[in-house]
Design goal:
6 helices; transmembrane; DUF1468 domain-containing protein
């Protein structure tokens, strides 16, 4: 796993350099938030680099063999499929209705309780509506339902 962490760390630094190049083309005021996000990304990548390249873990073989133990590939591919269907249905049904349905079906598929699935699938789209549509005035995809 450490080999993949090394590739990931180097790839993230390359991506962040490209991101920095794109941010420098923005006006100063517009670049503030992207620079903040970039700073967080660089900080977290530095933590990953320190953990990967400097700190030597104990019992690497035991840790790596147990890391993917218990992964359910059927659930993984179900979530990938549900995400693809979600992306397709956003423009057809509408962002908020599709998000509520996606959250409910995904949480049930991941064996969450029905009560929490219903609560989250109702409250989270309302939260998104209040933040993005009401407060930030961001347009969202509208379908035939909403």
């Amino acid at each position: 796993m450490r080999k993949y962490d090394k590739f990931l760390t180097i790839g993230l630094f390359i991506l962040e350099a490209f991101y920095f190049f794109l941010i420098k083309q923005l006006p100063e005021k517009a670049a503030r938030y992207p620079l903040f996000v970039l700073g967080l990304m660089v900080f977290l990548t530095l933590l990953l680099a320190i953990n990967t390249f400097i700190i030597k873990p104990k019992n690497v073989e035991d840790k790596e063999s147990d890391q993917f133990k218990g992964i359910l590939y059927r659930q993984f591919f179900l979530i990938i499929t549900l995400s693809a269907v979600y992306i397709i249905l956003i423009d057809i049904i509408g962002f908020f209705v599709t998000t509520a349905i996606y959250l409910f079906v995904t949480m049930v598929a991941l064996k969450s309780s029905i009560k929490w699935s219903i609560v989250v699938s109702i409250l989270f789209p309302i939260f998104l509506y209040l933040i993005f549509v009401s407060f930030l005035k961001v347009p969202v995809p509208r379908g035939f339902l909403l």
